[in-house]
């Protein structure tokens, strides 16, 4: 279950009041990218992709945490009975379903880490998980970025970017280009 587009926009707007910052616009850019790419894929729902992209970082509502935003968003969406966005909150930071591959601080309790690790181990990633992972890597607060520039920026900010994650993002880009039959940057109107 997931909220409607209008409900998701309201949830994001309310969350930005709790913790203003560029993450809200990043989420809107990710949502717009997800909608356009999904629309070009015969077996995907563009509206669903938009809502999931819009809410992927909703855990930022609770502050500027690293892994904490993943956990907080996952729990928040589960609390609202929105299982589809909850899954995306959890999976968007894990193009490799392994807690050790997370880039950033592990700023949650050991119990919460165990919950995240167990959930990741028991999830089957689908094309919506993969799509939001890709769009998260394309979206800046001011617009669509080159995926390699975005990963380079993350590497600068956090001091590292595991090669396996880097390669997986490029693999996701190629996967959706094949699925949509078009260059990703053309689909998302990156100029």
Describe the structure.
The chain has 191 residues and is mostly helical. It is built from ten helices and two strands. It has helices spanning 5-18, 23-39, 46-55, 67-79, 83-91, 110-122, 127-138, 147-158, 163-180, 184-187; strands at 139-140, 143-144. The protein has a two-stranded antiparallel ribbon. A hairpin with a 2-residue loop joins strand 1 and strand 2 (143-144). Helix 3 crosses helix 5 (83-91) and helix 7 crosses helix 9 (163-180). The protein is globular, with a radius of gyration of 15 Å. The chain starts with a helix and ends with a helix. The model has no long low-confidence stretch (mean pLDDT 94).
How are helices and strands ordered from N to C? HHHHHHHEEHHH
- Rg on CA atoms, Å: 15 Å
What amount of the residues lies in strands?
under 5%
N→C terminal distance: 35 Å
The share of residues in helices is 55-70%
Global shape:
globular
Number of separate strands: 2
